[in-house]
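Please fill in the sequence for the structure shown.

STRUCTURE ENCODING:
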């Protein structure tokens, strides 16, 4: 791919990420790292609902729902000071820290981690094929966790989801 149009596109994309940019996505142009995670979760849920209305795209809805759950938990951890904005935590640790933050029980965290570990990767790598029913349930789960955590945080006014 060297010296090709693809290499030019790669260079152009890299260059765009190196500059501040303009025309930011609505609702995401915030300075607060907590709100950024919250609103990323909102946008992921809205995008999944948009795709759900168009039938199909089950794999993307499953992926997006897992990402929305994680962003929402990260929002709460950042908001409560249980996670620093520069700190990296993997999927399992995010779920575990949700337990430590009192968002849910250890048993719930284990089930969430097992769901992610056993099914997200299968869907992503096409070892398991996403279905309409799985996509609908994952989106329902992501939306419910998002609403629960927002209620606990008392910051529903900062949410930019359509479900409010």
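FILLED IN BY: designer on duty
SEQUENCE:
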């Amino acid at each position: 791919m060297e010296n090709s149009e693809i290499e030019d596109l790669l260079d152009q994309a890299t260059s765009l990420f190196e500059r501040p940019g303009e025309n930011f996505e609505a609702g995401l142009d915030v300075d607060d790292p907590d709100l950024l995670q919250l609103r990323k979760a909102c946008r992921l849920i809205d995008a999944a609902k948009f795709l759900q209305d168009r039938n199909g795209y089950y794999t993307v809805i499953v992926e997006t729902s897992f990402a929305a759950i994680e962003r929402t938990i990260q929002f709460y951890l950042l908001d409560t000071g249980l996670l620093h904005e520069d700190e990296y935590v993997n999927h399992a640790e995010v779920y575990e820290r949700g337990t430590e933050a009192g968002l849910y029980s250890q048993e719930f965290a284990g089930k969430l981690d097992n769901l992610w570990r056993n099914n997200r990767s299968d869907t992503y790598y096409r070892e398991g094929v996403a279905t309409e029913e799985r996509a609908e349930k994952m989106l329902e789960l992501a939306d419910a966790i998002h609403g629960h955590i927002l209620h606990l945080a008392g910051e529903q006014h900062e949410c930019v989801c359509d479900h409010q």
